[in-house]
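Quick start: what a row looks like.
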Amino acid sequence: MVRRATSPMPFDTIPTGHIPSKRPEALREAFHEVRRHTLTLADPLSHEDWMLQSMEEASPIKWHLAHSSWFFETFILEPNLDEYTCFHTDFRFLFNSYYQQVGAMHQRAERGLLSRPAARDVLAYRAHVDASMDELFCAPASGDLPELANLVTLGIAHEQQHQELMQTDILHAFYQNRLLPAAYSDPAATSEPANAPHQSHAGGASAPAWVPFEGGLVEIGADGADFAFDNEYPRHRFWLNPFELSADLVTNRDYLGFMAAGGYEDPQYWLSDGWAQVQGKRWTAPLYWHQLGEGEPWQQFGLFGARPLDLDAPVRHVSYYEAAAYAAWAGAYLPTEIEWEVAAAAQPIEGRFLEDGKPGHWRDPLAGTKGPVRHLYGTVWEWTMSPYAAYPGYKPAGGAIGEYNGKFMSSQMVLRGGSSATPAGHVRATYRNFFPPDARWQISGIRLAR
């Protein structure tokens, strides 16, 4: 039996926008589809792999599997399903991520120490939550609670975010292994392009094609027609000067030119904090680039293992600092998120996404894009020069669910577009991803503006 929530979370204030259908059977189908896809990403990995945590920012696969279930249990089942039986009281502590209003939590940096509960217990936890959600969907009153449908939709979107993190987290963990194992087998393995000799470009980067935009009084942000996170609201106006975006992303070939020109040795291109990162962490190339010996061709590590560097692929796994330094070297700048959204809003959403079955693969399955700015979606998350901050008039939801986005609006930069590891439902012009400026383990790349 469904009951109206008695928790302090005002579900009806969650600005999730329109959802495709609030019918319980449609929500149930969407719920189980995302739950199955999460296990599809985990199944090729061993239970030993599920334990790996290579840095504080990443989480073990086992933790992702449990936390995404914890979200449904904590925010949907416990407040809304009569006689719900908690699977294990300790899980409330172990698998809380950062919701201070829910209660205490296990230290983030020590998630890899949780050998117990065992993998089989986490899978049993998922099955328990799935069965309880079925009870909720089948309850006669469930179709009368649109606020509950909104929250289920948010939970589905939350799990999709963790699907992307599962890929980037295990990639970082496997890179610590000198054997460079592949996380997944490539279902359509082809020979990668050879690492052709790089030709430097006099005067800076290779000359990109530029696409002009008029600017003027523009509107950005979610309009409520489709699902969106709260940080995409409210829609508002902004005066924008004329600008241009590069038609293509910066490629590995382009970035090698920056490296050959001494980009990592010359502080004039770097922000102060970025230069400190270069010096302190000894950055000399993007993350996951390596050479088998001095002077040998570059290789790049990915979810399918190590491959020769594809010179014509977009550069990826660079930080905001590296992206900004490259832009300065190329005589350009990183677009603002407003410029990016204005350009993207007029173009079709095309690209390769997580559901296409090749996680982490960069190539667009289409021959090209219909719009003038290519590979805006489903290739790499594109760094912008915009700090992650609230839009004018932004109001997070009350209660613990309000901690989802708003409290991270400090010391982070916005990325736009989505990568080849991003679920298709998360790819839209208004989507605001955000990471610290030194983050490199996400599939992040560079588009220039001027």
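That is the whole record. Confidence is low (pLDDT under 50) at residues 3-20, 191-204, 364-368. The first helix runs from residue 24 to 42.
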